[in-house]
Design goal:
By secondary structure, the chain is an alpha/beta fold. The protein has one domain: Rossmann fold (3-Layer(aba) Sandwich). Helix content is about 25%, strand content about 35%. An 8-stranded mixed beta sheet has the order 2-1-3-4-14-13-12-9. It has a 4-stranded mixed beta sheet with strand order 6-5-7-11. Its main location: cytoplasm. Its EC number is 4.3.2.10, 3.5.1.2.
C-alpha cells in the first residue's frame, strides 16, 4: 500500500463516487479500515456523508480515531469528513478528531436560503496552497451539507451562503474540503489530482 491512496471506509454514501473519481485520475486507491494500511499509505482520504456523530461512532468502533490523529502523510477530509477534523460539532454535540481547532455549526436558517445547502456554489480564496493549483476564485463546486466550519486562520477558501463559511482548510498535513470533489466535475478532479501530488 505504500505510495498508494487509502480511503477510510467511514460508511459514507459518497465512497463509490470517490473511488470512481480516483480511478478516472489513474490513481490506485484502496478502501480500508486497517490501521496498518492507513499508516503505510502515501495519502489518506476521510470521506463522510450523514451525521457527524454517526461517522465518529463508526471510526471509534473500527478503532481508527488514534490512528487518524497520528497520521503524518497528507490527509484530506471531505464534507462530513472535513467536519470530523475539527474539535467538535454542534450536530449531535459530538467530540471529533481534534486535528483542527474550532467547532462546526449548523448553517443559519434564512427564508431564501434553505438548509441543507445543496448545489453548485463558488469558491473565494483566503490563502495560497498547492491543493488549489489550477483552481481559480469564482470556480463552482458542488455542496450538500447542513453544517459548516467557521472562517479562521486555517481557511484557504470560503463559500458564501448567507454568511461565508470555510470551504477549504489546512493545518500542516491535514486538509479539508467541505464540498464534494468527486461530484464537482473538472474542478473537483483537479483538487483530487493536486492532493495526490502533495
Amino acid at each position: 500500500m505504500t505510495n498508494g491512496v487509502a480511503i477510510i471506509d467511514s460508511g459514507g454514501a459518497n465512497i463509490a463516487s470517490l473511488e470512481l473519481a480516483m480511478e478516472r485520475l489513474g490513481v490506485p486507491a484502496e478502501l480500508t479500515t486497517d490501521p496498518e494500511k492507513l499508516r503505510a499509505a502515501s495519502h489518506v482520504i476521510l470521506p463522510g456523508v450523514g451525521a457527524a456523530a454517526d461517522c465518529m461512532g463508526r471510526l471509534q468502533k473500527a478503532g481508527l480515531v488514534e490512528t487518524i490523529r497520528g497520521l503524518k502523510q497528507p490527509v484530506l477530509g471531505i464534507c462530513v469528513g472535513m467536519q470530523l477534523l475539527f474539535d467538535s460539532s454542534e450536530e449531535g454535540d459530538v467530540q471529533c478528531l481534534g486535528l483542527l481547532p474550532g467547532r462546526v455549526r449548523r448553517l443559519p436558517d434564512r427564508d431564501n436560503l434553505p438548509v441543507p445547502h445543496m448545489g453548485w456554489n463558488q469558491l473565494e480564496f483566503n490563502g495560497k496552497t498547492s491543493l488549489l493549483n489550477d483552481i481559480r476564485p469564482g470556480d463552482y463546486v458542488y455542496f450538500v451539507h447542513s453544517y459548516a466550519a467557521p472562517v479562521s486562520e486555517l481557511t484557504l477558501a470560503t463559500t458564501q451562503y448567507g454568511d461565508p463559511f470555510a470551504a477549504v482548510v489546512r493545518r500542516g498535513n491535514v486538509y479539508g474540503a467541505q464540498f464534494h470533489p468527486e461530484r464537482s466535475a473538472r474542478i473537483g478532479a483537479q483538487l483530487l489530482r493536486n492532493f495526490v501530488q502533495l
